[in-house]
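Bench notes, bay 3.
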Amino acid sequence: MKLIETQLYFYLENGEKRSPNYGYVFNVGLPKKESDYFLATEQIIKDKPDYLKYLKEVKWAIYDKNFERKTAYHTWIHTAGLVKGQSPFYKVEENKMEALFTLEGQKTEFFEKIRDRGALTGESIYFWGKRNGKFAIYNVHTGEKLTEDFKSSVLAGVILGRGTYFVGSYGEEIFYIFDLITGERLTKAFDEHKLIEILKHGDLERAVDEIGK
C-alpha cells in the first residue's frame, strides 16, 4: 500500500484500490507493511501555515486495509502497538491522560502516563502506569496493581518480558531490584551509574548476583 501526499491531503493506493482523502496519515503501519492498520485524521490541516503544529488540534482514528475506521475519534493516538504490528493494544491520550485500548474497547483506566514498553509493544503483559505522580507496575489484562509506588520507572526485566525482576526507585536516584512475583527486594541500593551499566547488558539476574543484598 503506497502513501501519497498532495498539496492538501493524503491518500493510500494499491493498484486500482484507493482510499478516501485524509488530512494527515502517519507513514507507519500499513504504508510500511508493518500491519493492516494506519493512523489518520480526516480533518484537513495542510491549508494552514506550519500545519504540523495542528496535529494535536484534530481528531485521530485507526483505519484498516479496507479503509474502514476501526476506532472512535481521539485527541491523540500513539503509533506504538497495534499500528506498528507489535501488539493488539494502542495508547490513547485524552485530557492529558493516557489509557490502553484494543479494537474491542478500553482495556485500562486512564493514567497520568503509561510507559511505551511492555504490554503496548507486545513484550509482556505488564506496564508502568503513573498515578498521583508515582509509578507502579500493572497487569494489562486484569488492571491489577502489582507493586508499591515508585518515584521512577525503569524499562528492564519483567516489563520487557525477561524473567520476573524489575528495577524500582523511591527517589534520590537510588535504585533496587525487586521480584515481581514475591515482592521481595533483592539488592542493596545502587546508583544511576550502576543502573546504566545494568541496562547495557539488560540481565537483572546477573545484576542481583553482582550487587548483593
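Next record in the batch:
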Amino acid sequence: MITDNQNNALSGATVEAVKLYNEAVEAFNIYRGDPVGLLNRAIELAPGFAMAHILKAHLFGLATEPGATKEAKAIVARVKSQRLSGREASHVAALDLLLEGQWTAAAVAFDRHSVDHPHDIVALQSGHLMDFYRANARDLRDRIARALPNWSADMPGYSILLGMYSFGLEETGDYGRAEDAGRRALDLQPLDCWAHHAVAHVMEMQGRAEDGIGWMIAREPYWSGDDNFFKVHNWWHRSLYHLDLGQVDEVFALYDGPIRQDRSTVALDMIDASALLWRLHLSGHDVGDRWKELAANWDIHADGRTYPFNDWHAVMAYLGAGRDGDVDRLVSAYRSVAEGSDIAEWGRRTAVPLIEGFAAFWRGDYERAADRLYSTRFIANSFGGSHAQRDVIDWTLAEAAARGGLTRLTEALANERLALKPHSPVNQSFLRRARKWRREKAEELMRKAGFGSIEMRELPHDGGGDAPGAGKTDLDRGAYMRGIGPVVHLGGAHER
C-alpha cells in the first residue's frame, strides 16, 4: 500500500500521483504555492486517488466562500462513490458536517479522528482551522497537544504542528510558551507563515508594537512572496502595529499597497481590508472612497448563510459605502435562516447584534451601539476569528461609550484594555477622554454652585500612567465638597 509522508495509507494512489499529493500537503501546511493545481495533476494521474479528492474538498470547504462551498460539496459527492479506507471515510463524514454548516460537530469529529490517527496532518490542520473559525481557543491548543507526543522532531511535518500549537497557546493567553513554540517551528521551517503569524499575534496581544514591526521586517522575505496565501494577513498584522503607534501614514501606505493593491476577492483578504478601514475610521481618519471598491467585491460572498464572520466584515464596507440596503439584507437573512446549524445560531446570536451595533455606531447612535456590542463581544465557541481580529468589537464599544458621553463605561473599558496593553496610545486615549469629561463636568457644577474656578490638581503617585490612582484629582478623591453633595454623579442610564 502506498503511503503519504506520515505513513498514512492512501487508497487509489500511484507512485507518481503521491509525489504530487505530498507536495500539495506541504503547500497547504505553509499556505504557499498552488495545492489545488498539484491535486488536480495527481487526480489526472490517478482518478481513484481518494485523499487527493478529499484534500481538495478540505481546501474549498475551509475557504468560507459560497462558491467554494458549492464546489466542495460536489467533490465530496463524487468521492463517496470510491472505495475508501476507514480513515478516509472519517474525513468524508466530517466534511459532510462542515459543508452543512455544522462546524462544531465537524471539529469534534476530527477530534475523535485524530485520537485514532494522530499522524494524519491533514485532519489536524483542517481541525485546527475549524477551531479558529468557531473561536474555540481551547481546542486550537489542545487538538495539537493531544497529538504532539505521538510525533518526533525527525517526522515530516513536525514543525507544522509546533506552529499550530504556538497559535493555540497564544489564543489561550500563554504568550511565553507560544512565542517559544513559534520560533522553534520557524527554526525548522522558515517558510511557515502560520507560525510566523502566531508570534505576531503574541506581540500584538502584549502591546509590543515596535518588536512586532521589527519581527515583520526582519522576516519579510519568508512570508511576503506572491505565492503566499497568508501574505495580506501578515501585512495587516504589521499595519496594526503602526496604527497602535499612531503612524497613520504607514497604515494608509500598507492598505493602498500590499493589502489592497491587487483588489483581491479572497474573503480572508477582504476581512483584513474591512477591519483595517474600520479601525482607521474609529481613529478619526477619513478613508475616502476606499469603502466603495471593497463593498463591491464583498457582493460575491456576503450571502447571509455561509459564514457570519465574513458578512459582518462586509457590513463594515457596506456602511462605509452608504449601502444600507445590503446591511438590512444581511440582518434579515440571519433572522430568517432555518434553524439546525451552527451558522444559523451564530447568525442570530452573534452576527445580528454585531451588525446592529456597528450600524448604530456608524449612524451616531452611540448608546444603542454600546448596548448591542457590550454583551455580544464575549464570543467563545462560535462565530470565529482571533482575539486580535475580534478586538475591533471592543474598540468600537469603547469609542461608542466615549462619543456617547457614557463616561463611567468609557473609563471602565479603558481600565480593562489598559490592564492588557498598558502602553497602547489608543487605550490611554480612552482614559484621558473620560477623565477630561469628568473634570469639565465637575468644573461646570462648581461654577453653577457659585464657587468660581477651581484648580484640578493631579495627586502624586508612585507608578506610571497605568498605576492605581494615576491621574486621580482632589475632586475624584473627595466625594463631597462644601456640603453640596457629590461633585459629579456618574452612572445609571443617563450619563450626560
